[in-house]
Specification:
The complex is a heterodimer of chains A (626) and B (236).
Chain A lengths: L1 H28 L8 H5 L5 H8 L5 H7 L4 H10 L2 E4 L7 H7 L5 E5 L19 H10 L5 E5 L5 H10 L5 E5 L2 E4 H10 L5 E5 L2 E3 L18 E3 L9 H9 L6 E3 L6 H9 L6 E3 L9 H12 L6 E3 L21 E3 L9 H6 L7 E5 L3 H11 L5 E5 L14 H10 L5 E6 L4 H10 L5 E6 L14 H10 L5 E3 L6 H10 L5 E5 L5 H10 L5 E5 L5 H6 L1 H4 L4 E5 L5 H10 L3 E6 L15 E6 L12 E4 L7 E2 L5
Parallel strand pairs in A: 1-2, 2-3, 3-4, 4-6, 5-7, 6-8, 8-9, 9-10, 10-11, 11-12, 12-13, 13-14, 14-15, 15-16, 16-17, 17-18, 18-19, 19-20
Antiparallel strand pairs in A: 20-22, 21-22, 21-23, 23-24
Helix pairs in contact in A: 3-5, 6-7, 7-8, 8-9, 11-12, 14-15, 15-16, 16-17, 17-18, 18-19
Chain B lengths: L9 H4 L2 H12 L6 H8 L40 H26 L14 E6 L6 E4 L6 H12 L7 H5 L3 H4 L4 E7 L4 E3 L5 H7 E8 L12 H11 L1
Parallel strand pairs in B: 1-5
Antiparallel strand pairs in B: 1-2, 3-4, 3-5
The chains are: A alpha/beta (626), B alpha+beta (236).
């Protein structure tokens, strides 16, 4: 769709150019006839209404960004028509500017903390506050209908403000957010009468109890999706039942773990139109009658395409799910502690599956079944079941991924946790599936070489980047030398996001990446032995990227200062929880986070974050405003 | 949650007295050897990870002083989201608790009404020569003797047989009657009832069948592959 609209736009711009040219020529030829109407001569731009109509077909924000660069009038038309605004880094631009630029904004998506915050690498209190944005939008864009936030700090105050300010508010999706309590959710539930989506995905919520569910209006609701799977406390069954009964449009329901299995049947009976279901706990004891009732209730969900939850799924209950399997396109078993061979019974029935998330309990055997039965598979994620590396005793090896790459022709996105790997396996995988767009391999043992040859995994990843020409996202692991990154720099031309841990030998690694990967937008590195030289040499590259994160690397304070002074539109943040008393230029920093911005240094940094000042004589300023 | 390498930075505080020396050295424009970095920056290297079950474990003694962090002690590794990590940790705890509980229960095999089996306890029972099968609740029984008694009542008690048959409840199990009790397990194999511990039996039994002793000849307690095939053919 994006390429079609782009083509359309290109054709249009050619047409426009010709039109404008003819206008101009016409105008020139008419200079001797002053009787012609001025308004016709003055309006050399293509009519706004026509442009607006054409732009309404341009959906993707990337295309819209390109469109807005063509000329001033296109910029103006585009900005007046953009409805869905996406800001990948909330500190890259000020909320006020965004509010002013897009008067027709109906949906705002924001991302805050760096991705490595998911793994506790960003200390608490770093930032990513939603408040300034919500305040700005509340004042200037009261017609906003949707807010989607990822990795941001959202307070109850924010939620109350949303509820109070946007009268047509329809959709709140919070992913990996924190800072609010169930009181805030209650405010949204009770006040937003047109609410369609309320989704809390993996948020950290101050859970004050399940009362919030009773705050939805008593009359029929317009709810389409409700996800409270990350909450801990119990909600009252009667509240939930009544809510379902009066939400005829509900298509997606994701319960939390404390919703027990014995009540599931009663809930499903009230929502047979569900397309997505996230169950609660699946391990409670049921008697045969209850089981048969549940089986029947599940089989009544004729439109169900996605199933998740399934906490602690017991093997005895797998047959209960048989009726929904043939229609499923998405199955999330990553919290189901079921082992082989019980998993086979389930997976062999899911012939339409496109997305599968499992734990490594699936083992190579289970993945072989997937390769045989799930021919439509596009995305596979295999998570570790042991919190500790030493506890991993399942037989999941590289062979599992090789089987799936052989059997599933449409596979394009993989996240695979495995104890160790081989180059040969990576080469096979690359040969089998040149259509990978996202390849994230986590060899859980840091610095692990190819366990058969004891060689680094350089050749394996070389095969991946060479063959998978469309690769957008890559995570590497295992023993890797600078050579691996030379290959990545040379071949991975479409790569946008790269994650690296415990790898490389020297500065060359970073240099290869920054000078080679043309499309690189996000780079995150931890525990790699390099820093200054490559960083300074490729400083200009950093302005073409969204952000660079480096922690536990060899970056010196002096280099940070130099970089910041060299590049005025980069914020160079030094994040140091244990800074030395004096800070000579040579001292290493714990973490740096560098991102491009037109908003200047931010004013909400905590005490452990320093934004390097642009003026050398000022040195480092810690602008912290509470 | 205070993340971000607090464990790794412990080494730094020990170096404060030496700081001045380092500074002077660096001030003279000497290039930074990796040694200096290692002390200050405390970057984890391959030496810090004695790999699970490999020769490199022997080399771990070569690096400085402090015991190497296990890969699980490194902050943010493996890179699994905190929600999932919490779930995993819970799961491990539950597994450990369950394992303990199992051990305790194994010791008290004959506990009455030992209802710890999840899921459906009803299995079908068919007797050779009888068209209609019955269902019996495995969970309502605590031992083989118990089960045999129920089955005998179901299939033999009503025929008006002699009192003698009722009085000796273990006949089905000890091979002295003309019938034996067999079961189909999870893997589809037919076996003699009574070989495995009761608890294991009730989790793996799928169906029960009371068959004539002559037919059941192939079902010896130590199973051999040929015998399994033979009885499969018999039952086919």
């Amino acid at each position: 769709m994006a390429s079609v609209s782009l083509l359309f736009v290109t054709l249009l711009s050619v047409t426009l150019y010709i039109n404008i040219k003819s206008f101009i020529l016409w105008d020139q030829s008419q200079t001797f006839l002053p009787s012609l109407s001025d308004s016709v001569l003055m309006d050399r731009r293509f009519p706004f209404k026509v442009l607006e109509h054409i732009f309404s077909f341009v959906d993707s924000n990337e295309d819209r960004n390109s469109v807005s660069l063509v000329c001033k009038s296109w910029f103006e038309t585009e900005r007046r028509t953009r409805k869905r605004v996406f800001v990948g880094n909330c500190y890259a631009v000020s909320p006020l500017k965004v509010a002013r630029r897009f008067p027709k904004m109906r949906s705002l998506t924001l991302k805050g903390k760096p991705h490595f915050a998911d793994y506790n690498l960003v200390p608490d209190g770093w930032g990513g506050y939603a408040w300034p944005w919500i305040e700005a939008m509340a004042a200037r864009r009261p017609l906003l209908e949707e807010i989607r936030l990822k990795r941001m700090v959202v307070t109850d105050e924010c939620l109350e403000k949303i509820a109070a300010s946007f009268r047509d508010f329809k959709s709140l999706v919070l992913t990996s957010c924190e800072g609010f309590s169930t009181d805030g959710i209650a405010a949204i539930a009770s006040t937003c009468r047109k609410l369609r989506n309320l989704e809390l995905r993996e948020c950290i919520v101050d859970d004050l109890g399940g009362d919030w569910l009773s705050y939805f209006p008593e009359t029929s609701t317009s709810l389409v999706s409700l996800d409270f799977s990350c909450l801990d406390s119990e909600v009252k069954l009667s509240d939930l039942e009544r809510l379902l009964s009066r939400s005829p449009n509900l298509k997606s329901l994701k319960l939390n773990r404390s919703v027990t299995l014995d009540v599931l049947e009663s809930l499903l009976r009230r929502a047979p139109q569900l397309v997505e279901l996230g169950t609660g706990s699946f391990s409670d004891e049921l008697d045969p009658e209850e089981i048969s009732k549940l089986t029947k209730a599940l089989s009544e969900l004729k439109q169900l395409k996605s199933l998740s939850g399934l906490w602690d799924l017991l093997p005895e209950y797998i047959p209960v799910l048989y009726s929904v399997c043939p229609r499923l396109t998405s199955l999330n078993l990553s919290y189901a502690t079921v082992q082989m061979p019980d998993l086979i019974d389930l997976l062999s029935r899911c012939s339409k599956l496109q997305k599968l998330w499992v734990m490594d309990l699936i083992e190579d055997k289970g993945l072989k079944t997937v390769a045989l039965c799930c021919k439509e598979l596009r995305e596979l994620r295999v998570f570790p079941s042991g919190a500790d590396l030493d506890e991993t005793d399942v037989t999941l090896t590289e062979q599992g991924l090789v089987s799936v790459s052989e059997g599933c022709q449409k596979l394009e996105s993989v996240l695979y946790f495995c104890v160790q790997f081989t180059n040969a396996a990576l080469v096979s995988i690359a040969k089998n599936r040149p259509n990978f767009r996202c390849f994230r391999l986590c060899v859980m043992e840091p610095f692990a070489p190819d366990y058969r040859t004891q060689q680094p995994l350089d050749e394996g990843f070389k095969a991946i980047v060479e063959r998978c020409k469309d690769l957008r996202r890559l995570s590497v692991s295992g023993l890797l030398t600078d050579k691996a990154f030379e290959y990545i720099g040379v071949h991975a031309k479409k790569l946008r996001m790269l994650s690296i841990a415990f790898a490389g030998d020297s500065d060359l690694m970073l240099h290869h990446l920054l000078s080679g990967c043309e499309s690189l937008k996000k780079l995150e590195i931890r525990d790699c032995p390099f820093g200054d030289t490559a960083l300074l040499e490729n400083a200009a590259k950093l302005e073409t990227m969204r952000s660079l994160w480096m922690s536990s690397c060899f970056v010196s304070f002096g280099a940070c200062k130099q970089l910041s002074q060299k590049m005025p539109r980069l914020n160079v943040e030094v994040i140091d929880e244990h800074p030395p008393k004096t800070r000579p230029d040579s001292s290493p920093v714990e973490r740096i986070y560098i991102y491009r911005t037109v908003a200047g240094p931010r004013l909400d940094t905590p005490e452990f974050v320093w934004t390097i000042h642009k003026k050398p004589e000022v040195g480092v300023s810690r602008l912290a405003i509470r | 949650m205070r993340g971000g390498g607090s464990e790794l930075e412990l080494g730094k505080s020990n170096l404060l007295p030496a700081e001045n020396e380092l500074e002077l050295g660096l001030g003279l424009g000497l290039s930074l050897g990796s040694g200096a970095w290692r002390e200050r920056g405390r970057i984890l290297t391959a030496k810090d990870f004695p790999s699970v079950g490999s020769k490199r474990a022997a080399d771990s003694s070569s690096h400085q002083g402090a015991s190497p962090p296990r890969s699980s002690q490194v902050v943010g590794w493996p890179p699994v989201g905190s929600h999932r990590m919490n779930s995993l940790v819970n799961h491990q705890a539950v597994k450990a608790a369950k394992a303990e509980g199992e051990e305790v229960k194994q010791k008290n095999k004959d506990e009455p009404k030992d209802v710890s089996v999840h899921g459906s306890g009803f299995v079908k029972v068919n007797k050779d020569g009888v068209g209609i099968g019955r269902k019996v609740d495995m969970r309502a029984h605590s031992s083989y003797e118990n089960l045999a008694q129920t089955l005998e009542e179901m299939f033999f008690g009503m025929t008006g047989a002699t009192c003698g048959e009722k009085v000796r409840p273990l006949r089905l199990l000890d091979g002295s009657s003309e019938f034996v009790l067999t079961y189909e397990d999870k893997e589809g194999d037919w076996m003699l009832v009574g070989d495995v511990p009761w608890r294991m039996f009730i989790t793996s039994v799928k169906r029960l069948r009371i068959m004539g002793t002559s037919e059941a000849n192939g079902l010896a307690a130590p199973r051999h592959q040929e015998e399994k095939d033979r009885q499969r053919n018999n039952l086919a």
